[in-house]
């Protein structure tokens, strides 16, 4: 009858939460005592509730009783299925209170918050550079190891990042997805488009500190500096004159 009356005569001495059943209070006390009386016979992990042990056993048995009605992917936990459904519904219930960006998973929101806090808990043991994401550190380590796990299937050239491979593929596909708004010319890379735009705007962002002449390209500034330094890096193969 306590279910109907709402009576909860069993209070917790630690946090004052109340329960309708003495057995529920006993189970609740494990939160405070840390008691986990249900061990997994396979891996030894322990649980407070028998129900949690039963769910955990699916890791070992491979049992996935919960299936997605949209794509038929299967899950061992009902909560995992519920989270997965956000892929199909587009639901993103975790908003960032600072910028409004929304996320499907609370864990992704927590990672995103490091953008605002500047927190970088993952450091490189080689150069001490720090990163906000563990995945970013893992990718960075390729600089030190020389690992290039992303090969081009057409020419065999390898890249450290999948994004670099995607950019490289435009050489083979001929894709030039960055059009100039002033003329019909198109470019494979946004950086090349930005450089090209200077032809139309007249922008010359690279000044010579000695004579104030300005240049559209840094490479042209470097060549110009030889006028002042007298450097002649290209010798004649026949007579050696530079």
Automatic annotation (TrEMBL):
<keyword id="KW-0804">Transcription</keyword>
<feature type="domain" description="C2H2-type">
    <location>
        <begin position="10"/>
        <end position="37"/>
    </location>
</feature>
<dbReference type="Pfam" id="PF00096">
    <property type="entry name" value="zf-C2H2"/>
</dbReference>
<feature type="domain" description="C2H2-type">
    <location>
        <begin position="178"/>
        <end position="205"/>
    </location>
</feature>
<dbReference type="GO" id="GO:0001227">
    <property type="term" value="F:DNA-binding transcription repressor activity, RNA polymerase II-specific"/>
</dbReference>
<feature type="domain" description="C2H2-type">
    <location>
        <begin position="66"/>
        <end position="93"/>
    </location>
</feature>
<feature type="domain" description="C2H2-type">
    <location>
        <begin position="150"/>
        <end position="177"/>
    </location>
</feature>
<dbReference type="InterPro" id="IPR013087">
    <property type="entry name" value="Znf_C2H2_type"/>
</dbReference>
<keyword id="KW-0805">Transcription regulation</keyword>
<dbReference type="InterPro" id="IPR036236">
    <property type="entry name" value="Znf_C2H2_sf"/>
</dbReference>
<protein>
    <submittedName>
        <fullName>Gastrula zinc finger protein XlCGF49.1-like</fullName>
    </submittedName>
</protein>
<comment type="similarity">
    <text>Belongs to the krueppel C2H2-type zinc-finger protein family.</text>
</comment>
<feature type="domain" description="C2H2-type">
    <location>
        <begin position="122"/>
        <end position="149"/>
    </location>
</feature>
<dbReference type="GO" id="GO:0008270">
    <property type="term" value="F:zinc ion binding"/>
</dbReference>
<dbReference type="GO" id="GO:0005654">
    <property type="term" value="C:nucleoplasm"/>
</dbReference>
<keyword id="KW-0863">Zinc-finger</keyword>
<keyword id="KW-0677">Repeat</keyword>
<keyword id="KW-0238">DNA-binding</keyword>
<comment type="function">
    <text>May be involved in transcriptional regulation.</text>
</comment>
<feature type="domain" description="C2H2-type">
    <location>
        <begin position="38"/>
        <end position="65"/>
    </location>
</feature>
<dbReference type="GO" id="GO:0000978">
    <property type="term" value="F:RNA polymerase II cis-regulatory region sequence-specific DNA binding"/>
</dbReference>
<keyword id="KW-0479">Metal-binding</keyword>
<keyword id="KW-0862">Zinc</keyword>
<keyword id="KW-0539">Nucleus</keyword>
<feature type="domain" description="C2H2-type">
    <location>
        <begin position="94"/>
        <end position="121"/>
    </location>
</feature>
<feature type="domain" description="C2H2-type">
    <location>
        <begin position="206"/>
        <end position="233"/>
    </location>
</feature>
């Amino acid at each position: 009858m306590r279910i109907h009356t709402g009576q909860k005569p069993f209070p917790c001495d630690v946090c004052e939460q109340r329960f309708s059943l003495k057995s529920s209070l006993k189970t609740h006390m494990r939160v405070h005592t840390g008691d986990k009386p249900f061990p997994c016979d396979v891996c030894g992990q322990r649980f407070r509730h028998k129900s949690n042990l039963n769910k955990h056993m699916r890791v070992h048995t491979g049992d996935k009783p919960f299936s997605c009605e949209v794509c038929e992917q299967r899950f061992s936990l009902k909560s995992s299925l519920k989270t997965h459904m956000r892929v199909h519904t587009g639901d993103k219930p975790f908003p960032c209170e600072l910028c409004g960006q929304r996320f499907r998973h609370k864990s992704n929101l927590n990672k995103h918050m490091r953008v605002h806090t500047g927190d970088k808990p993952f450091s490189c043991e080689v150069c001490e550079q720090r990163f906000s994401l563990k995945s970013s550190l893992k990718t960075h380590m390729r600089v030190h190891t020389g690992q290039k796990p992303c090969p081009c299937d057409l020419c065999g050239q390898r890249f450290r990042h999948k994004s670099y491979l995607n950019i490289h593929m435009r050489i083979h596909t001929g894709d030039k997805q960055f059009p100039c708004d002033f003329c019909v010319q198109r470019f494979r890379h946004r950086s090349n488009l930005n450089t090209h735009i200077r032809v139309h705007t007249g922008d010359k962002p690279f000044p010579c500190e000695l004579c104030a002449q300005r240049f559209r390209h840094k490479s042209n500034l470097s060549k110009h500096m030889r006028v002042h330094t007298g450097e002649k890096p290209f010798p004649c193969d026949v007579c050696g004159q530079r």
